[in-house]
Amino acid sequence: MKIKLVVGLGNPGKKYNNTRHNMGFWVLDTIAEKLDVPKWKERDGGMYFDTYVDLSRVIFLKPQKYINLSGDVMIEFVKFFDIKKEDILVISDDLDLPIGSIKLKEKGSSGGHNGLKNIESQLKTNEYKRIKIGISNDKNVDTKDYVLGKLSKSEQRVLKPVIQNVADIVLASFSTPFPELMSKYNTKIKK
């Protein structure tokens, strides 16, 4: 039976809770609440749970190494569970998207995101599905400080419903073709 893998990107540890780089973790925590998952398990440098969604066995993974080493953790799960690249979905933040916008992609470049770069180098391809959540960018702040910075109250208000929406999109992705989800949910960016 095919196993699907959903990877939420973020940095482990309390000091990174509620930071812009941890959108993927936030989505997976939301999915765990929706599915009423009793507890996360640990293996190969990751926190994960697995369950059945629409007759698919799905592993939800939060790599517990720093975000730029996400692929090192993910590849262990891919090898152990024999997961095909077309059955992988990665959720990350995106500096180039306005805050609260989302973009679903079936493949593409890392866009400078170190977590996605590491995943690409481990998978030896950029052909894997992803959902990116816009966190905007403040050019007056060093990029590293910005992505590791805490979300303001107003950012949290904007992002909370977006995170819920992305969690629902992830769950829908097991029964709905991804191109259909892309055309339904990709936010039109206003210039």
Largest sheet descriptor: 7 strands, mixed
CATH architecture: 3-Layer(aba) Sandwich
Number of helices: 6
How large a portion of the residues is in β-strands, by DSSP E?
15-25%
Care to count the β-strands?
Answer: 7
Provide a descriptive summary of the structure in words.
The protein has helices at 23-34, 70-80, 114-123, 143-147, 153-172, 178-185, and strands at residues 3-8, 41-43, 46-53, 56-63, 88-94, 102-105, 129-134. With 191 residues, the chain is an alpha/beta fold. 36% of the residues are buried. A hairpin with a 2-residue loop joins strand 3 (46-53) and strand 4. It is built from six helices and seven strands, in the order βαβββαββαβααα. It has a single domain, classed as Rossmann fold (3-Layer(aba) Sandwich).
Would you kindly provide a brief summary of this structure?
The protein has 191 residues and is an alpha/beta fold. The chain has helices at residues 23-34, 70-80, 114-123, 143-147, 153-172, 178-185, and strands spanning 3-8, 41-43, 46-53, 56-63, 88-94, 102-105, 129-134. The protein contains six helices and seven strands; from the N terminus they run βαβββαββαβααα.
Question: What features would you highlight for this structure?
Answer:
191 residues; alpha/beta; Rossmann fold; seven-stranded mixed sheet; 6 helices; 7 strands; 22% strand; globular
SSE topology:
Elements: E1 3-8, H1 23-34, E2 41-43, E3 46-53, E4 56-63, H2 70-80, E5 88-94, E6 102-105, H3 114-123, E7 129-134, H4 143-147, H5 153-172, H6 178-185
Parallel strand pairs: 1-4, 1-5, 5-7
Antiparallel strand pairs: 2-3, 3-4, 6-7
Helix pairs in contact: 1-5, 2-3
